Every structure is written in C-alpha cells, then in structure tokens.
Amino acid sequence: MSGEEGTDYRKLSDLAEVTGGVTLGREVAESASVELPYLRVANVQNGYIDTAEVKTVRVLESEVDRFSLSPGDVLLTEGGDFDKLGRGAVWDGRLSPCLYQNHIFRVRCNLPDLVPEYLSLYMASPEGRAYFLSIAKQTTNLATINSSQLKAMPVLLPSVAEQRRIVEVLEATDKRIGAESAASRKEELLWDGLINQRIEKHANEFEGMRLADVCHTSGTYGSNAAAVPRDDRLPRYVRITDIDDLGNLSADPSSAVSVPWESARPYILEDGDLLIARTGYTTGKSYLYRSADGLCAYAGYLVRFRVDPSVLLPEYAFMWTRANVFKKWVSRNVREVGQRNISAREYDDHRIAVPPLTVQRELVDAWEAARASSLLRQQEIARLRTLKQAIADDLLAAARSGA
C-alpha cells in the first residue's frame, strides 16, 4: 500500500507481533505460581508509562515469559472511554520482570523494519487516531478495538533512518519531560512524608468525628450519564481516570470529556467539594474541587462530600485522604469480592481527626505552597507533551508527503 509521493504503508502484522496480556481474577495454585507486578490500563498513558502505582498479580511460573515485557515493547490500550482508545507508549524496562493485563496490547516490533518509538508516535498521530476510531466497536460511552483490527492497521513506513530522525528530533523534549517529572516526584515524596507525619500525630492527639458529621450532608453518588466529547459550553465530566496520583484534575486536554446539562445539574461541584473514588483499584483516591478548575460535574464512581469549613477545612480533609492513616483504613474496609468498592455509607462512618481550626490552617498553608509549585510543574509537563505530539505530527506529515 502506498500514500502520496510513493510513501509506503504496511500492515502492522507484517512489522510486529501483537499479543494480549494476563487475565485478572483467575484462581491460580500458589505452589506453582509467582506474584509479579503488572501494568493496568491506568498505567499506560498518552506517550508515557506511569508506574507511581503498580499492582501485582499471581501467575503460573510457566506463564511468566509469555506475559513479560521487554524494553522497546509498545503498549496500547484496547479501549474504554473514548480518550483511552489506542492510548499507548513504549516500555523502558524500569521494572523487571513486569507483566501486562489483558486490556492492553503488547506490540513487539521487528527492529530491522520498525522503530518502536516511531510506531508509538504514529499511533498517537491524527492518522493513527482516525484509524482506531474508524474500526472501533462503539457503544454509548465506550469504544474498543480487538487484536485482529490492530494487526490490520496500515502503518506509514518511511526508511528506518527517517524513523530514527523523527524520534531523535523529539528526544530533547523527552529529556525536559523526564527532568520535570523527576523533580515533581521528588517534591511529592517530600511533602507526602511531612503530611503523613503530621496527620499521624493529629490522629493520636485529637478526637475523631464521623466524616458525615463534619459535612453538610452525607456522601452522595455522582451521575451515571454517558460522557460526550469535550465542549466548553458544557460542564467538564470528572471521572476517576481524570484524577492524577497527586489528587489534581488532569491537565491533558485530550483526556477531558463533558456531560450534557440535563444530566449534570444535580452534580455540579462547588468550591471545596471533596470527591473520593468508591470502586476499582483506585478506591480511596481523592480530589478537592477548586473553582479554578472550571465548571465541573462528577461521575457515578465518585462520592461527593460537602465539608463544613466551620468544623473542618476542606483542604485538611483532602490532606487526610492522602495520608497513610486513611489509606490503611481503605485497605481494611474495601470489599474484594467482584469489583473492589467502598460505599458512600461506609465512607460516612470513617472517623477523621478534628484539630482546632488554627492547627488545621497551619498545615494547610504549608501544603498550599507545595501544591502551587507542583501544579506549575504538572502544567509544564502537560505543555511539553502537547508540544511533543504537535512536532511529531508535523514530522509525520512531512514523511508522508516525501518532503
């Protein structure tokens, strides 16, 4: 297959091996198995792998090689929400061994013909995205692709030298992203340590109250309405996947979706609303809404708590949910049968230390200063990733035209 100016296209199956990962939830005999880290859909982001939170899975010893990742493997999500369709990145081998789950495709390139980093860029390009959207099985709010469709994907194939040139042009941006990410992670660890120390001290010193009793109302579930593509005239739809590991709303515009007004009205967020995830592997993840995040409504897998600031500062409540004392409570109370979950009523009964407001304010002010620095770094990282994709799109367009 050829494009303009004779640029070649080849089927992905001619250039790489495409395989699926390990199925979760199986009964595996402990005597013949090992427990190893694995990547979930949440770990595979647009252009990078996030290993801040990696789960483990038990597999047969005989399956380890089959489901193991190697440096240079291109990982691709099979779908879910529209923003997850075909999302991918190249594995760098930072964990070994490391497996991958069945909702992720592993694409192992034939290196003489196809450079993994180039393939990842091509899949994320407008042309790659258009292919995924054209062949995906779509329901109201979900889109998925299967391995046969992925194997049939036509890939723009310039010479290996040109592929490497495209990748090398982007390396400087990658280095800047890496430096900002490392600095952000260092700050996060420093402040998490301080917060944990202070919160643990408060838990031992001050009387606890039910979470529901320090809020204007009990916890309330969000909307079950289907998301629609991002529209600035509509509220942004906040889902579990939109909340990053720091408890911030994702700054990546490609991941944002909206919700129609008729479904959003009862779920519009107000400044200081605290959201806590109630289901899945991120049960207990939290987010504190700020009006600076724009008009937002929240989805059904989140529980909203409208904290009473005359008793407990919303920022302090959020910090509490980030601390180990809360995470340990989640681990003890989460139901593992079927889909992991904690109900709104159970969150209502969680007891939270309530120091005097002056003590709360002291810790909150220190945290706010750290958070401002972190947000600036996250915004810069998001800007650099957007810039990288824009440069990649231009380079691919030039390769396509033979320029």
Overview of the structural elements:
The chain is α+β, with helices and mostly antiparallel strands and 403 residues long. It folds into two domains: 4-158, Alpha-Beta Complex (Adenine-n6-DNA-methyltransferase TaqI, Chain A, domain 2); 181-358, DNA methylase specificity domains (Adenine-n6-DNA-methyltransferase TaqI, Chain A, domain 2). 36% of the residues lie in helices and 19% in strands. It is built from eleven helices and 22 strands. It has a four-stranded antiparallel sheet with strand order 2-9-5-7. Strand 10 (137-138) and strand 11 form a beta hairpin. Helix 6 packs antiparallel against helix 11. The model is unreliable at 1-6 (pLDDT under 50).
In short:
With 403 residues, the chain is of the alpha+beta class. The chain has eleven helices and 22 strands.
Helix-strand layout with pairing:
Elements: E1 9-11, E2 16-20, E3 33-39, E4 55-60, H1 64-67, E5 74-77, E6 79-80, E7 88-90, E8 99-100, E9 104-109, H2 116-124, H3 126-135, E10 137-138, E11 143-144, H4 147-151, E12 154-156, H5 160-169, H6 171-205, E13 208-210, E14 220-221, E15 228-229, E16 236-238, E17 257-258, H7 261-264, E18 273-277, E19 286-288, E20 296-298, E21 302-306, H8 314-322, H9 324-333, H10 344-349, E22 351-353, H11 357-401
Parallel strand pairs: 3-8, 16-20
Antiparallel strand pairs: 1-12, 2-9, 3-4, 5-7, 5-9, 6-11, 10-11, 13-22, 14-21, 15-17, 18-19, 18-21
Helix pairs in contact: 6-11
